[in-house]
Amino acid sequence: MTARPAPPRPPRRRPGGHLAAAYGLLALTALLFLVFSLALPRTFPTRETIDSILSTQSIPAVLALAAMAPIVTRAFDLSIGYVLGLAHVMVLQLVVDGHWPWPLACLAVLVGAGLVGVLNGVIVEFGQIDSFIATLGTGSMLYAVTGWVTGGARVVPGPRGLPTGFTDLYDATFLGLPVPAFYVLALAASLWLVLERLPLGRGLYVVGSNPRAADLLGIPTRRYTVYAFTASGLITGFAGVLLAAQLQVGNPSVGLDYLLPAFAGALLGSTAVRPGRPNALGTLVAVAVLAVGLTGIAQLGGDFWTTPLFYGATLLLAVGLAGYSARRRLRTGTAAAGDLPSVPSPPP
């Protein structure tokens, strides 16, 4: 009898390469901070700069986490910029013109933003419309609603201004740091817990990686996709409340300025911590890279056009790196078991 040939051994993972892929973006953040600190020793490595980054980048970070939620299921929510604009305008409209108590106004806006997320999910899944087209259409309609509500003008508070409790949502400090930074940390921790530790998050990853397999396993793919869009709407509504507390003036067109930074952070975040899959911690690292880079360029005297150039180049780089990482993992088979979502057991 001839001996059977031994089956080929799976390729070994290289711990060093895995660590470099997972935490390379974090190392880049530290390197950029060091470079700008050496170039601008009097202005960049200061407490004022750190506080400015933590406060001004909180809203882009929250919106990047909102954009990340549907990306987990391989869908895109282009309406988040329009929802952000409508949400921050509606909060001020209810408080200033409607004389609503600000907690009730914030709650109403959050509920409305969540309903928009549900609508997006239903249109995408049950209407069988591509997420790009569906959310772009709903976003354009929301932009029209924003113009109708405001009449194309800004919402300006009266002489008394806004309630102090409302403005403190953005202006307050906690443990000596801006309080919006703690919102971002709490939100990222909550998303990490859901996606990495709960069956719902594992199911969402399965839906995004292989919808057919999810159907065979009994995972309700349509319902899970609606959940992802609902989370995106709720998080965007919260970002709109923070934006209203920051600007204290309603601008109907301001939301679109945050669309590109949100997707740049969400897509670039899929190349960090958990390379090849969207994750909350990677999104935070990506936002940190963008924040440090933009702050350093601004202090070096960069012109106004450097900001969209930086975001656009980062977005292209993020998409390219994410695609290359996914192809490399499929080609070499180096995906670790811990990097893949646990598949729930099929129902009997």
Oligomeric state of the chains? single chain
Side by side, the strands of the main sheet go 1-2
What's the total helix number? 14
Order of helices and strands: HHHHHHHEEHHHHHHH
The computed structural class is mainly alpha
Q: Which runs of at least 5 residues are low in confidence (pLDDT < 50)?
A: 334-348
Mean pLDDT level = 84
Distance between the termini: 43 Å
Instruction: Give the DSSP E fraction (strand runs of 2 or more residues).
Output: under 5%
Shape: globular
Rounded to an integer in angstroms, the radius of gyration calculated over CA atoms is 22 Å
Number of E-type strands? 2
Biggest β-sheet: count, sense, barrel? 2 strands, antiparallel
Question: What is the percent of helical residues?
Answer: 55-70%
Please describe the structure with a list of short key phrases separated by commas or semicolons.
2 strands; disordered C terminus; mainly alpha; 69% helix; two-stranded antiparallel ribbon; 348 residues; single chain
Write a short abstract of this structure.
The protein is mostly helical and 348 residues long. The protein has helices spanning 15-39, 47-56, 58-71, 80-97, 102-125, 131-150, 164-171, 179-197, 199-209, 211-216, 221-247, 259-269, 280-299, 306-332, and strands spanning 173-174, 177-178.
